[in-house]
Amino acid sequence: xxxxxxxxxxxxxxxxxxxxxxxxxxxxxxxxxxxxxxxxxxxxxxxxxxxxxxxxxxxxxxxxxxxxxxxxxxxxxxxxxxxxxxxxxxxxxxxxxxxxxxxxxxxxxxxxxxxxxxxxxxxxxxxxxxxxxxxxxxxxxxxxxxxxxxxxxxxxxxxxxxxxxxxxxxxxxxxxxxxxxxxxxxxxxxxxxxxxxxxxxxxxxxxx
Length: 208
Fold this sequence. Notes:
Blueprint: H1 2-19, H2 21-44, H3 49-60, H4 66-88, H5 93-159, H6 169-201
């Protein structure tokens, strides 16, 4: 009986992995980018002028009026939102999509590393309170958006093969657009969460 449940459990796990293999791959690209960001900062921490300027620019978007914080957050996310959508509308988008998600991971990894390296425990608290909550939501949205972009781009690429037709392409594109627009709700939630956390806690931190 135990062996039977074990076999069923293994089949269930394998089935989940197979059904979500694309999502797992995209998440892996994000984590790989994040790891590269951390290691890149570690290797270049002695000459951290670039990272210092990036942090100053990032921190400037966490203070001031609510509209300023919202606008700064939107500008930070907009290149990734637009890049992901456009990747899905071209035949090489399935190649660009992992790159876009990895770049986002790289930027988060480097900024988190800089804050921790220069502020120790205070940096950890800052990351947990201000950076992580909105980043988790925006990353979730970006990963789901990447899955849609990768899939639709792959469909476009298949059309280039001889004898391949897709009479539902217009409907598929409309569905793609609807799903990408739906992701904007998650991005909007991430912006509002950053606004809430920044206005509530940023003034308590004096970071280097």
